[in-house]
Amino acid sequence: MTTSTINLCSTKTWIWQGFPICYQTQGTTGPAVVLIHGFGASWLHWRKNIPVLAENCRVYAIDLIGFGSSAKPEPNTKIAYTLETWGQQLADFCREVVGEPAFLVGNSIGCIVAMQAAVSNPDIALGISLLNCSLRLLHDRKRETLPWSRRVGAPALQRVLSVKPIGNFFFNQVAQAKTVRKILLQAYADQAAVTEELVDVLTAPASDPGAVAVFLAFTSYSTGPLPEDLLPLLPCPAMIVWGTADPWEPVDLGRELANYPQVLKFIPLEGVGHCPQDEAPELVNPILQDWIWERVRISKTQKIPA
Prior knowledge:
This protein is 40% helix and 16% strand. The protein is of the alpha/beta class. The protein has an 8-stranded mixed sheet, sandwiched between helices. Helix 2 packs across helix 3 and helix 6 (177-187) packs across helix 7. It is globular, with a radius of gyration of 18 Å. The two termini are 32 Å apart.
């Protein structure tokens, strides 16, 4: 499946706090589902999921501010690139565009955004699906658990990157197609899934004005909520799906998140990497469909919020 299976003309723009936000929508009936990408990605990272889910759901996929085709205003002067900011953007999107509570589906850092939105705005979420949730291992509160080299190295790198010329040079190296491909080949267990299309999806927004500043702002961000902060506060049930071959977010640590009572299911995907929705959509799409409709049936039967 390629982007040609999605009508790119249906991409829409929503104005949030004065900034244009890009989103894609498909489907005319069924429950609302909102897809939230991870760091450096865009709604196109869900291109293999949108048409399938849209067969019986109203699907929305949003570009968080600073990413994809959404606006990239200057950090800290016009907007703060924090999980709280993105969580509020998502909640406002559900109210103003979707128009009703939705099932939220996130990948990586998008999982934290989904949970933050639901915790701060309990009325907008029917259920949450977390695909390889970011564990935020470089967070200030987690750094002590890391090996000495990473514990010391990460803050040092952050300080170096804060020097504008160095940060710009670093970003320009990372944003090259060959570098992105190398990173993806680490993140994806199925090397065949790392296509030219995927590389283009992730590199194209890097040339937008403001992309460098957004990248550096987030790489220096070591505070904000952790998944274990948000999970016990969730106002709705959650499901966790985890590619077990993820080199960045260890599945053993992911399993620990399933101990919270809000998590009703933990589904490991053997031999799948960090972005299961793109690497193994044939596995992820049925899981999401079953979860959504199971929650809908339970809601109708018990007459309680899904």
